[in-house]
Design goal:
The protein is mainly α and 244 residues long. 71% of the residues lie in helices and 2% in strands. It has two domains: 11-78, Orthogonal Bundle (Arc Repressor Mutant, subunit A); 97-241, Up-down Bundle (Four Helix Bundle (Hemerythrin (Met), subunit A)). The chain has helices at 11-24, 37-44, 48-60, 80-95, 99-120, 123-137, 142-160, 163-185, 190-209, 213-228, 234-241; strands spanning 64-65, 75-76.
């Protein structure tokens, strides 16, 4: 690995760029260690504070893990998923993504996940999905039920094998869990609402087992529309209906 001295103006950014490139190019692999803080100061010819700021940023990105007290440098971890998820989740909050936008995204991504899962599922995958539905049936409260619901759909995305879709959905998972929990809690018949969710999950499992991609995709879109469309205004409801 070859690093070069950087200009002192916002020096930490150049340090971040060089180390990031070394990791993404494969020059530094997970499990490798960076030089010590003192060695990095000498290599980049910048202040200790610049190196510390760069390392803090790289750790927040999930690229390295610092180890206080260690005689060696930070460990390359390449846990980018957590860093990207945190960034996307923050963007969702600051940009004020609407409920209608979230429903649209879930309709489109849910259809895609269900369709791909039909092509790629194994018998073991089906057993895991059935186990999750059984756990939902025995859930003690709405919060636990909502968490299991999220796990069910995350498992389908895992079966689908599209890593980008899984990454993007991780950023909105907390919002979705809150949404499901609130919907059930506000229902005048929460037990029946839970059973309706479980019935839909069983239908999805049947479609995936039979590799019926059309039906699996239809259930994803129709169930989300039926469940949430009444919460948005008429204009957005019409837009959602066009996705069916």
């Amino acid at each position: 690995m070859t690093f070069t001295p950087v200009e002192r103006s916002r020096a930490f950014e150049s340090v971040v760029d060089q180390i990031e490139e070394a990791i993404y190019s494969g020059e530094l692999a997970p499990g490798d260690t960076l030089p010590s803080e003192r060695a990095l100061v000498e290599t980049f010819q910048v202040s200790r504070s610049s190196i510390r700021e760069a390392l803090r940023i790289l750790e927040s990105m999930g690229l390295i893990t610092t180890r206080p007290g260690s005689k060696t440098g930070p460990l390359v971890s390449l846990h980018t998923r957590s860093g990207i998820t945190r960034l996307l989740a923050g963007t969702l909050r600051t940009k004020g993504v609407s409920l209608a936008d979230l429903i649209q995204y879930r309709m489109v991504s849910g259809e895609m996940a269900n369709r791909l899962a039909c092509a790629r599922r194994t018998d073991a995958d089906l057993e895991e999905l059935e186990t999750l539905v059984a756990k939902m049936q025995d859930a003690l409260d709405d919060g636990e039920f909502a968490q299991l619901d999220a796990q069910f759909h995350e498992r389908i995305r895992s079966i689908a094998g599209n890593h980008l879709m899984s990454l993007l959905n991780s950023s909105v998972q907390d919002v979705i869990v809150d949404q499901v929990s609130s919907l059930i809690s506000s229902s005048d018949r929460p037990s029946a609402t839970r059973e309706e969710f479980n019935a839909l999950h069983r239908e999805i499992i049947v479609a995936i087992r039979e590799r019926n991609a059309g039906e699996a995709g239809r259930i994803a879109k129709q169930s989300l529309y039926d469940t949430y469309s009444h919460l948005v205004d008429e204009k957005r409801r019409v837009e959602l209906r066009m996705l069916l």
